[in-house]
Amino acid sequence: MKMRRFLCIVMAVMLFLGIVMPVGAEETAEEAPIVLEAEAPEQMIPEETASEIQLDTGTSNNTITADNRILDNVYLESVDLSGMNAQEAAQAAEKRMEEISGYQIWLYMDDQSVSVSAKDLGVSGDYEQAISYASQLGQNGNVISRYKTKKDLEVQPLQLELEYKADEEVIRQALQQNCLPLNREVSNYDLVRDGSSFTVVKGQRGVVLKEEESVQRVKTYLTEEWKDGVGSVDLVVDITEPKGSEEQLSKVQSVLGQGSTDYSSSSSNRAQNIKNATQMI
Asked: Which residue in 255, 217, 253, 254 sits closest to 237, CA to CA?
């Protein structure tokens, strides 16, 4: 009886060791702490390399600013706007306009001419839209598009056109003051007797300014054709050609005929008529 009890105990122990213990071992394994592999240290990029791969997408100092500094290599006519904000660019453009408005514009009326400054012809700059465009160029969009805009400017600088305005009323006043005095009447060719020979007096064409047409011509020239420097405009005029010619009158070499009359005994009225008649020859 004791032997049977002993065998039962041994079998119970064996069952315990073979069945229960593996389960316990598995639970122990699950509860074991998890060891994480240490991350490899971050590879350091040399400072020189880092600066090379950083995208340069801002304004001229490589950052987006509230006042939108204009990118490098942007010009308004010959004015370099690089790094300026809109107010500074407008001041630079106005300074350039002061220089331009000092140039002389020659106004021609046939063979006569007079010079007037561009300022006195009402010239002023029209650059607001150009500066607004320059201030916004490369400031909007994603980082790639801004970067591309800046790089494109390095290859091909942008030159914006400086446009001009001209005041019609100022032009009209300038023409009235400077050009109307050049109007002249026609003068026909003539002969003047000098002893036994004759001298041809050259004629001159009559010239009269056509004011309104000339105002429009000057305005068109200043706003669409002229850029800077000394300019010239042929004004619109009426021309009257003189009668006769030097070629015709130069053929007269001698007196073709002459006559005389004595009117000393004539009445005063007849004497005056004779004087008037001879003056017309």
From this structure: 217
**Residue 87: both structure tokens together:** 């107010």
pLDDT tens for 260-277 read 776 666 677 776 776 776
Query: Amino acid letter at 249?
Result: L
Strands (E), the chain: 74-76, 79-80, 104-109, 112-117, 123-126, 158-160, 163-166, 190-194, 197-201, 206-209, 231-234, 237-240
User: Whole-model pTM?
Assistant: 0.58
Question: Cα dist. 42→39, 55, 243 in Å?
Answer: 8, 22, 101
Question: Among 145, 162, 138, which Cα is nearest to 71's?
Answer: 138
Would you give the DSSP letter of residue 227? -
CB-CB contact of 109 with 179 (8 Å): yes
**Structure tokens, 200:** 């041809």
Q: CA–CA separation, 90 vs 81, rounded Å?
A: 9
Q: Which of 150, 192, 157 is nearest to 62 (CA)?
A: 150
What's phi and psi for 46, nearest 5 deg? -55, 145
Task: Identify each DSSP E strand in 60-174 by its residue range.
Answer: 74-76, 79-80, 104-109, 112-117, 123-126, 158-160, 163-166
pLDDT tens for residues 97-148? 888 889 999 999 999 999 999 999 999 888 888 888 888 888 888 888 888 8
